[in-house]
Amino acid sequence: MSSHAYIRLVPSSEKESVTTDEVIELFNYYKNITNKTGDQLNWEYREAAFPYEIVEKPEGKGKWFYLKSDEANYNIILIGVDKQTFHQEEETPSEQTYIQITLPETSTFGDKGKANEFCKFLAKKLKAELQLFNGRVMYFYPRK
């Protein structure tokens, strides 16, 4: 059975909404900084840190993409961006953007480890709320 993690952009987050292109930019930034770490350590860290290829299909353009790997311990991670409407007490309904990270049945334990790492990275960068695959919630935004 597939499992899901959610990164929710709350009112005190860095941004109110995010697109798949912005998420892909964050992944490219992640690859860049891990490459620099590898240069400092004199080790090819980039392949170990991000063993995936970003694949965006025409039918998912602007909604979802996936990370595909040919490495032995990794397979696939699905990533989608959407909005949900929620009602707060006595207020007008408002929309909340979220990023859904899905591990399909074909995903490996390596995928789950990398997905947790990527979730934390994205949530920190966006100052968002992260609901992990096990249901626990981490807060990366300034709380009052």
How would you portray this structure in words?
This protein has 144 residues and is α+β, with helices and mostly antiparallel strands. It has one domain: 2-Layer Sandwich (TATA-Binding Protein), CATH 3.30.310. The protein contains three helices and seven strands, in the order E-H-H-E-E-E-E-H-E-E. Strands 2-3-4-5-1-6-7 form a seven-stranded antiparallel beta sheet, covered by helices on one side. Strand 3 and strand 4 (76-86) form a beta hairpin. The chain is globular. The relative contact order is 0.24. The mean pLDDT is 89.
For the termini, the CA-CA separation is 37 Å
Report Rg.
Answer: 16 Å
- The number of helical elements comes to 3
- Count the E strands: 7
Domain module count:
1
CATH secondary-structure class: Alpha Beta
Low-confidence stretches: none
> What kind of sheet is the major sheet?
7 strands, antiparallel
Order of helices and strands: EHHEEEEHEE
**Main structural class:** alpha+beta
The shape is globular
CATH homology superfamily: Rbstp2229 like protein
Q: Report helical residue fraction.
A: 25-40%
Q: Please, what is the average pLDDT? A: 89
**Spatial order of the strands in the main sheet?**
2-3-4-5-1-6-7
CATH architecture: 2-Layer Sandwich
